[in-house]
């Protein structure tokens, strides 16, 4: 390289450097370049603002409209009360038994058989309860078509009249029967059953069957045909202590008698006036009281007082209960009556309304993450009819409502005891308010993600 060449190169480099400095110096930038840079900066700024506004606006829109998780609902089953236990009172009679028709759903299966029994189950003297069997055997041979059917006319002769004196000497209950007296079969049965006239029992059974031997044979056949193997009848009145039966057989006999229209009406009659026999009054002092509707007393003296009875008890159920009972071997009529009344009262009082719910009773709560709360309550008071301490079963049916507003019914509770059920509504007390905008904007984790919504 020659000496003159070097200055030329240095001058060229200097000119190029100055040109670059002029391009990047504000006061020396070319106007066209400056405009291009400004437009590019404004474009970048605009893009950033658009992106920022889009992101922010999208979040706000999502946060203000995104679904929230449903409120948390907690429920607890209300305590189910238990009724007071009831027991049939004890007594000192030799034996007793009770059957209750229409109560199996309350008292358990078998209540319509022998629900309660005390004392011996062996045969005991039944005294004048025998006359009920005599009537059933007679009507098996000479049926009456209805409760008021008089049946054939019976005319009593001198031999029948003589029975009045014979039984009077024996100290038995009797009713007038003058020679030549005529009356319907139904009236003759009434004279035998209502005042318990022994002379009518023998006279009528002899007249229908022709002899006492024939009557006793028919009685044995009747007992066998009805499966009453625990019963023995040796004569038609019950004066013999050898006329015996068991409590179980007597319950069955009572039901047969109560099912016979003519007998049922006669034994439910407290007094009657029959031509030839006069005014006659029942020996059943309880008839018409304590729900007693029949049937027959029996008495052989101290320690052998008996009562075979039927009763109808209104206990608040849909239908009354039909009670059949027997007490054997009581010390007196008064003691037997007291035993029967106490037993019936214990059955009646054993049925009671048990409160199971109170209106407004709280059984749960509703809460949200944004601290809005309400309670779940029973909408109305309820009680249920039950017997003694029969367990009460409860079921709850709670649904998710579309809105948790005050008074909204969200389900029901049902209680069951025996054949009865009662249902009460379950509802919201108080209202669940929707979350506010600030809470939504500041709690994104509590909101449903758009990705979740597609699941």
Could you explain how this protein is built, in words?
36% of the residues lie in helices and 24% in strands. The chain contains 13 helices and 19 strands. Helix 4 packs parallel to helix 7, helix 4 crosses helix 8 and helix 6 packs across helix 10. The relative contact order is 0.14. The N terminus is likely disordered.
Order of strands side by side in the largest beta sheet?
1-14-15-19-18-17
What share of residues is helical? 25-40%
Mean pLDDT, to the nearest integer, reads: 85
**Portion in beta strands:** 15-25%
**CA(first)-CA(last) distance:** 81 Å
Largest sheet at a glance? Answer: 6 strands, antiparallel
Work out the helix count.
13
Shape: rod-shaped
CATH topology of the largest domain: Beta-lactamase
Describe this structure in a few short sentences.
By secondary structure, this protein is α+β, with helices and mostly antiparallel strands.
Search tags:
single chain; 455 residues; alpha+beta; Peptidoglycan synthesis regulatory factor (PBP3), Domain 2; Beta-lactamase; six-stranded antiparallel β-sheet; 13 helices; disordered N terminus
Secondary structure topology:
Layout lengths: L4 H20 L6 H35 L6 E4 L19 E7 L2 H4 L8 E4 L4 E2 L4 H12 L11 E3 L2 H12 L12 E3 H9 L4 H12 L2 H14 L18 E2 L1 H13 L1 H7 L3 E4 L3 E4 L10 E8 L5 E9 L7 E10 L2 H18 E7 L4 E6 L5 E6 L3 E6 L5 E6 L10 E9 L2 E10 L7 H6 L7 H4 L2
Antiparallel strand pairs: 1-14, 2-3, 2-12, 4-7, 5-6, 8-9, 10-11, 11-12, 13-16, 14-15, 15-19, 17-18, 18-19
Helix pairs in contact: 4-7, 4-8, 5-7, 6-7, 6-10, 7-8
């Amino acid at each position: 390289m020659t000496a003159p060449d070097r200055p030329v190169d240095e001058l060229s480099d200097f000119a190029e450097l100055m040109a670059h400095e002029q391009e990047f110096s504000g006061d020396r930038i070319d106007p066209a370049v400056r405009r291009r840079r400004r437009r590019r900066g404004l474009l970048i700024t605009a893009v950033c603002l658009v992106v920022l506004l889009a992101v922010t606006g999208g979040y706000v829109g999502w946060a203000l409209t995104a679904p929230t998780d449903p409120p948390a609902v907690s429920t607890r089953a209300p305590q189910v009360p238990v009724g007071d236990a009831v027991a049939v009172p004890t007594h000192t009679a030799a034996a007793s038994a009770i059957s209750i028709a229409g109560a199996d759903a309350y008292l358990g299966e078998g209540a319509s058989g022998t629900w309660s029994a005390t004392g011996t189950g062996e045969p005991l003297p039944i005294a004048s309860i025998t006359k009920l069997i005599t009537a059933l055997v007679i009507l098996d041979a000479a049926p009456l078509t209805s409760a008021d059917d008089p049946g054939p006319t019976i005319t009593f002769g001198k031999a029948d009249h003589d029975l009045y004196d014979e039984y009077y000497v024996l100290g038995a209950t009797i009713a007038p029967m003058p020679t030549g007296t005529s009356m319907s079969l139904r009236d003759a049965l009434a004279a035998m059953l209502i005042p318990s006239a022994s002379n009518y029992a023998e006279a009528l059974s002899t007249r229908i069957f022709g002899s006492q031997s024939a009557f006793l044979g028919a009685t044995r056949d009747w007992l066998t045909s009805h499966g009453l193997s625990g019963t023995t009848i040796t004569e038609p009145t019950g004066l013999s202590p050898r006329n015996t039966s068991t409590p179980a057989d007597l319950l069955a006999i009572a039901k047969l008698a109560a099912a016979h229209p003519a007998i049922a009406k006669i034994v439910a009659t407290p007094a009657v006036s029959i031509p030839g026999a006069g005014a006659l009054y029942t020996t059943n002092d309880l008839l018409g009281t304590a729900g007693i509707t029949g049937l027959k007393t029996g008495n052989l003296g101290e320690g052998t007082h008996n009562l075979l009875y039927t009763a109808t008890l209104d206990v608040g159920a849909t239908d009354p209960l039909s009670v059949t009972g027997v007490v054997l071997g009581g010390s007196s009529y008064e003691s037997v009556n007291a035993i029967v009344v106490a037993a019936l009262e214990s059955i009646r009082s054993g049925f009671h309304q048990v409160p199971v719910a109170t209106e407004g009773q709280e059984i749960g709560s509703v809460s949200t993450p944004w601290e809005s709360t309400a309670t779940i309550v029973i909408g109305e008071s309820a009680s249920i009819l039950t017997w003694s301490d029969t367990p009460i079963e409860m079921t709850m049916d709670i649904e998710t409502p579309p809105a948790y507003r005050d008074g909204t019914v969200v389900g029901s509770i049902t209680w069951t005891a025996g054949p009865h059920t009662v249902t009460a509504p379950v509802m919201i007390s108080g209202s669940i308010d929707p979350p506010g905008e600030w809470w939504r904007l500041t709690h994104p984790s509590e909101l449903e993600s758009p990705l979740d919504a597609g699941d």
